[in-house]
Structures are given as C-alpha cells and as structure tokens.
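Input chain follows. Return structure tokens only.
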Amino acid sequence: MHAKLIDFINENIGNIINNWCDEVQNSEFMDHYKTLSRDELIKRGEAVLINLLNWFNKGASTESTKQYFEGIGAIRLQEGFSLTEVNYAFYSIKKNLIEFIISDDNLKQILPQNETCTIMNTLNNFFDLGNFFILRGYNSEMFNKIEETGKLSSSELKRIFRKGSLDVDEIDGDEIIWRHIY
C-alpha cells in the first residue's frame, strides 16, 4: 500500500525539502534555523523524510522512531534552539510534505480514496509520534543540564522559552527554581 507513497517521496524529496527551506527562510518563527546554511537545512530536512521512509519500509517501529527523535530533541537543545522553533520546523516539514502530496495530480490518480486516507493517517501518526519524542528528548536533555549544574541561567531560560512560549521579559531568574521531580 505504501509503495506508491515511498516512490513518490523518494522521487520528490529534493523539491519537498527545497520548499521547506524556502519556508524556513521566510518564517518569523525560525530565527535560529535561518542561521544555518541551505546545505545544512537540506541535510536536516532530508534526514526527517529518510527516517519516514525507513519507518514505512521497516513496518513503523516505535522504538526506532523514539531513538531518532529523542536524539534530535536533545541535540537541538544543545545547539541552542528554542523548543517552539524545533516544534514549528518539524510541523513545517510535515505541512510541506502533505501539501506536495495533495497537489500532485499523478499521485491522486493512482491512489484510491481509501488508501489516501490511510496514508494521511499514517503520516500524521509518524509526525505526531516524532513530535512527542522530540519534546521528550529536548526535556530530558534540559533536565540533565539542570542536574549537572543545579540550575538554568536567565539567558538559558530566555533561549529555551521564546517566540510564543512565554513572555521572556517577565522571567525573573531569582524567583525560579528548576528541579527535576522523580
């Protein structure tokens, strides 16, 4: 069932990711991603779609998805990305992929209606599960940092929580105590 979609993504991965890169460059929500070279953006976007293709080919393993995306979440924190920006970038890849699928007349003609619904549901499951594990990996890495140092600095809090997550100007570092509760 997914063979047609796998072939379609493989054939169009460059176009899908180029559209995503254009969106990154024009988004008000992806300032940190804008600092990356286009080649690095392409590499990161392609890695997500390649992981999706592997997920389809291997039979949708939650464990492999967990490992991959938790790692991505932890790395993005280490790289200085805000959580909202990582979340928006991942959403944007999903949106660009689905828009590309929907707009392709050839794919619409060869996929029966019931297959299209199943494929969209599977794509949503992959991206929702990926998002969950990105959040979990990001938070785990943040808790590891807190356990190492006993705190997050005001500048770290501002970097982590920005662009829509809360008003960073209202953060008073002296009033916040961060502890991981077991």
